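For anyone still unconvinced, we reproduce a single protein record, the chain in one-letter code, the fold tokenised, and leave readers to judge:
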Amino acid sequence: MITDKGFSSKQILFFLCGFVFLGLLAINITSLDDIWSSPKFLAFFFAMIVTGIFGIIGNWTDFEGIKTAPNPGYPVAIRNTSILPITLLSVLLFNNSFSFLKFLGVIVIIFGIILLIINKKNDASEKSKFSRWYLFSFLALFSFTIAVLVLKKATLFADFSSKEINLFSFGLNFLGFAIISRKELKSYFQDKIKLKTFLPLIVAAS
């Protein structure tokens, strides 16, 4: 895991979002004029800003949860329970159909995740660390729930496809982590040996 090699969550997310953004920019370079000239651009851009803000919070807390948890599967499992609020709120916000069978399926998934993360053998020395990753994981769950719902709203704008949505989403995340990491940016490029180990992994992840 990259976080075990001395790289911070902010550093990983800055480079990860940056490389993905550059790739998406290359894909969208010929259609940028169409994006700016769309009559629905401002409404779309506002939706993307909201998505970007909650995406930044969600990505950072998700990485911190994975970094501090005794098992990375635990915070990932908690984050993935966003399926329940997203499914229920989608019924109210987007008039999606919902049946008892679907609800039962969601409950079964959540019950399985609860069984996965419960560990009655935690000793006192691990409780504070446990509480920390637990908090990060639930913040990630909440943030990704909001981000996904607003992202769904963005997909309803006919002028914008998934490639434009991803361009703005990763671009805003890249900008956000650049601002958050502004004091450490110089140090990111100073250790050349460490950077040679780090960059290939990030490029592959991107």
In short: Residues 124-155 form the longest helix (32 residues).
